[in-house]
Please model this.
Amino acid sequence: MDYAKEIEKLKKEKNAVIMSHYYTTGDIQDIADYIGDSLALAQQAAKTDADIIVLCGVHFMGETAKILCPDKKVLVPDMAAGCSLADSCPADKFEEFVKAHPGYKVVSYVNTTAAVKALTDVVVTSSNAKQIVESFPADEKLIFGPDHNLGSYINSITGRNMLLWDGGCHVHEKFSKTKILELKKQYPDALVLVHPECKESIVSIADKVGSTAALLKFAVNSDKKEFIVATESGILHEMQKQAPDKLFIPAPPESGACNNCEYMKMNTLEKVYKILKDETPEVLVDPEVAKKAIKPIKKMLEISAKLGL
Ligand code: 13P
Ligand code: SF4
Model:
């Protein structure tokens, strides 16, 4: 079956929109109406007039879209596509942590379950975390969760001293500094692009630290021709598309050739076709949880809009 063609037909019939994160496979990115980082996907979901959103990414992204669009049908191609970072922050344990620190405001990365967002004052993504943290008064006491690496990085560039939850992404934690430095010897002119979910040792050798969208923009606009990319390898598809004359080399992990998120790679064209045809199972969020979780998500979108992000 020509899945791309069938998906296109169903999309029109059902007034559906397909959104995809940069970490999915190239064939999915190629049929998506929107490709983006976590912030862009939330922004697109908030303003779409489609009746059905197919979110090709992981489950928390579908939840965020559903919270923003409670009257729309939100589908993810594989409901089992989770996220090790979201899993590293169980809502009951996070609630205990928050309760143990009265007087603290809670800043949560978007890679969290709806239940964790419901305990949060403002959600951030890697595209806006610095600016949103800086929007709090300098003496505001802040908790940041769940990504410890991102929290440490934001502390280091803002001079804050946020209390950090000890969570992490198994994909971004795997990069090898030794192997990246070996690659640099082979490609001495290459710039090292690093996602802030990576360990401090990797951030320390970066020429540019940023969200997937920021790394993409930097690489496309740079006058350099070679880049070693320390984030999930799916982003290389769009980098190569937007800058076909440049060389993008996936940064090596401790073992293996490049770093794939097995959850993101659970999205396939066949599954996109099937979920759009069947429209079930759909992503649902407990309305009580959604009522609380929408506030910090909207706050993030409002601050981002004000800052032009
Ligand atoms: P961004 O898309 O915000 O860069 O986040 C990366 C990520 O790990 C998404 O799961
Ligand atoms: Fe989660 Fe990491 Fe996969 Fe992103 S790359 S979805 S943070 S496990």
Summary: The chain has three domains: 3-81+264-284, 85-164, 172-250. The mean pLDDT is 97. The chain is about 45% helix and 15% strand. Residues 287-306 form the longest helix (20 residues).
